[in-house]
Design a protein that fits this description.
α2 packs across α3. β5 and β6 form a beta hairpin. This protein has one domain: Methyltransferase, Cobalt-precorrin-4 Transmethylase, Domain 2, CATH 3.30.950. The longest helix has 14 residues. The protein has a four-stranded mixed β-sheet. Strands 5-6 form a two-stranded antiparallel ribbon. By secondary structure, the protein is α+β, with helices and mostly antiparallel strands. The protein contains three helices and six strands; from the N terminus they run βααβαββββ.
Length: 118
């Protein structure tokens, strides 16, 4: 706690394994992520989301924005091409509340974000 009566707010990270995500349907993943972010958590997904799941996450986020929820900031490593050029899922995705997280650099092997208390 800081002086002056203002309580510091912890920043929580949810680190979700690829195995856990694989056991969920697309809608379960999206709801799980959105619920975590709405609680103020930063959600990091090993294995990431498909491009279709990312689009659905953005769609659902837009429908839930209000005065208490400013939306999401999302960063992902690009999809790697697999054998014979078959598309694979994103390698890693990080999602956080838009008012707490700002992606400042993203390339094929690095995501740099600033995460601040609200």
């Amino acid at each position: 706690m800081s002086g002056g009566g203002e309580e510091e707010k912890d920043i929580k990270l949810d680190l979700i394994s690829e195995d856990r995500m694989a056991s969920m349907t697309s809608m379960e993943k999206i709801r799980f992520i959105l619920d975590g972010v709405k609680l103020g958590n930063i959600v990091v997904l090993e294995g990431g989301l498909t491009p279709e799941e990312q689009m659905k996450l953005i769609e659902m986020t837009m429908s839930e924005i209000d005065e208490d929820f400013a939306g999401i900031e999302i960063g992902s490593y690009p999809v790697k091409r697999g054998f014979l050029g078959l598309r694979r899922r994103t390698r890693l995705t990080i999602v956080g509340p838009a008012n707490m997280m700002k992606t400042i650099k993203k390339d094929k092997d690095l995501i740099r974000a600033i995460i601040s208390r609200v």
